[in-house]
Design a protein that fits this description.
homodimer; 3-stranded antiparallel beta sheet; 3 strands; DNA-binding
Chain lengths: 107, 107
DNA sequence: CACTAACGTAAGTAGCAACTAACGTACGGA
DNA sequence: TCCGTACGTTAGTTGCTACTTACGTTAGTG
């Protein structure tokens, strides 16, 4: 599963698709219109993203609406955390300070 | 840079190399002995990891000692954070509680 | 200065991954 | 029911990527 996720987001066009879906749910055609490659190519990319659990589909009439899905990312985060703990610590540190600030303001 | 990092960790053998280096600094030969593939193949993998900034080298005599390096991961985390905020929120939530607990104990 | 150890590098190959063109399918409208 | 729309699917091609074999290089050792 981790392997599928990593292979999925290793491809630039697929990352671009994910960025588009970050804004809102989009149909396969709408997604394809943002790229230079043909529609079937995008369809295949969507299949890869779906297999990796990064994207979900919803059929509405003749359209297929795609949306972001976070499944499969937990393994990825676990992977990153397992040997770049100091990096995640930076994130943690930032969060810590944020929390302490908020905590003081609340009182 | 993000692209290089993602392509680097998308390969299973390279992820395995990173896992080995998590324990301690290792020579190219020691790393290669843990794999079925030939030594030149590992040498090429190490080159990819080095180009991505995930690994550093240190020459000692005729040996080359490799070690983990966290450069390049910040972009990756930023990428993940940009549209899987809810996932990182889980991490944040865990950190938040931890901080609040520690905070109370200190007082 | 040979000789070995521990590597990286170059060249060639096999397999996979991304792409296109052509085709098939399901849905809605006239 | 016929037609167009919006897709996915298949087959075939191209280009890249991981691999091997062969060779070059640098640092110690007798």
């Amino acid at each position: 599963m981790l392997d599928q996720v990593l292979r999925a987001i290793a491809e630039p066009n697929r990352r671009e698709i994910l960025k588009l879906l970050r804004e809102k749910e989009l149909s396969a055609g709408e997604i394809a219109s943002s790229f230079d490659v043909t529609r079937p190519a995008i369809s295949q990319h969507l299949q890869v993203l779906h297999a990796a659990g990064l994207v979900g589909v919803r059929r509405v009439g003749t359209k297929r609406l795609y949306h972001l899905k976070a499944e499969g990312t937990s393994e990825l985060l676990q992977f990153l955390n397992s040997f770049w703990e100091d990096r995640l610590d930076l994130l943690k540190k930032a969060v810590e300070e944020e929390v302490r600030r908020e905590d003081r303001n609340e009182r």
